[in-house]
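Bit of a strange request maybe. I'm writing a small parser for structure token strings and I need a real example to test against, not something I typed by hand. Could someone generate the tokens for this chain?
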Amino acid sequence: MSLKEKRLAAGMTLSALMKASGVHAVKIAQIESGKINPENISLKNALRLADALGCHPRDLI
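Reply from user aminoacidic:
Good idea to test on real output. This should exercise your parser:
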């Protein structure tokens, strides 16, 4: 499941995920749109996003 699918399944807006994770909305949007390959997300951001979404970081790849 992609980051966007996980975010939507969690009922979160982009802004809500940004606030919950501390990852800038532009970075999240770039990951969701494919401009940044999910495999190239920094470990720090992967951990923050996964924590905010209640999943394991590997689930975001």
